[in-house]
Amino acid sequence: MAARANWKGFLKVGEVTCPVALYTAASTSDRIAFHTLNRETGNRVRRRYVDSQTGKPVEHDDQVKGFEVSSGEYVVLEPDEVAATVPESDKTLSVDAFIACDDIDDVYFDKPYYLAPTDKAAQEAFGLIREGMRAKKVAALARTVLFRRERTVLIRPHGPGLIATTLNFDYEVRSSAEAFSGLPKTKIADEMLDLAKHIISTKRGEFDPTKFEDRYEAALADLVKAKIEGRKITPRKPRAPAKVTDLMEALRQSAGMGAGSSKAAPGQKSSGAKKKPSPRKAPARKSGGAERRKAS
């Protein structure tokens, strides 16, 4: 079954124009969905708007949008007034500029779409734009009206096609300053940093989305199957709380260099023969915090 386009229009770069279509790249439609039921009758419960004061149902034609200006006071907006604010669309993804692919912080990324030509006649112009961008290692910033709003879109080469990602507006992206305001400036000891680097190097891998399982979705599917088959549902036992450990010891354990290990820490030489430790009071544990890098 052919994919259904969410939007059709034109991709315009300078004087080069080709008809294109946007297709959903990420969707939640395959997730398990539930309906709300009346426990007594087993019938579905339907949502209905009622007046907050009188409790009486409000029919669709009597519903209008309102903006609250003060407590309990609203500015009423009629449907035709709201419709008049929707920007006019010429169905054109007009490229304003090309930027380096890593110039934009992905915190601005909203939703991805596949961008493809709509017919064979458009494939040559489409391929020219795609391969030109790939050769120069750039992405395109374009604007168009999508779903009643003017949106900025980041366009990047992706295999034989393009990926068009809608971008969040600046006012929608919250500053990281407040979230990171309580993080102290800490000095990390060289030994701790060496151990952290060693752990990271042993855990290096490649991104493979097929290896990541949605455990919640899988558990829901098992639950539904068990209910259908009439099997007994066994409640899951709560996890034991994690132990609070010394950071340095935790790093050594992660690197396979825990107490009793003969391995030398990264950057250190093994002493060979073991020395008998002289009896002395154990040193006080040092507290440490992993340094977090601020988002740009």
TrEMBL record:
Keyword hit for S-adenosyl-L-methionine: no
Q: Which UniProt keywords are given for this protein, alphabetically ordered?
A: DNA damage, DNA recombination, DNA repair, DNA-binding
Instruction: Using the UniProt annotation, give all residue ranges assigned to the region (Disordered).
Output: 250-296
Gene Ontology molecular function: any one: double-stranded DNA binding
Which Pfam families does the entry mention? Ku (PF02735)
**Which CDD domains would you find in this protein's record?**
KU_like (cd00789)
Among InterPro entries, the record links this protein to:
DNA_bd_Ku70/Ku80, Prok_Ku, SPOC-like_C_dom_sf
Domain annotation Ku: ranges: 55-185
Q: Does the keyword Transit peptide apply?
A: no
An example GO biological process term is: double-strand break repair via nonhomologous end joining
Q: Where is the composition biased (Low complexity)?
A: 254-271
Its quaternary structure? Homodimer. Interacts with LigD.
* Database matches in PANTHER family: NON-HOMOLOGOUS END JOINING PROTEIN KU
Family recorded in the similarity comment? Belongs to the prokaryotic Ku family.
* HAMAP family in alphabetical order: Prokaryotic_Ku
State the protein's purpose: With LigD forms a non-homologous end joining (NHEJ) DNA repair enzyme, which repairs dsDNA breaks with reduced fidelity. Binds linear dsDNA with 5'- and 3'- overhangs but not closed circular dsDNA nor ssDNA. Recruits and stimulates the ligase activity of LigD.
Q: Under which name does UniProt file this protein? A: Non-homologous end joining protein Ku
- The species is Hansschlegelia zhihuaiae
The record lists the lineage as: Bacteria, Pseudomonadati, Pseudomonadota, Alphaproteobacteria, Hyphomicrobiales
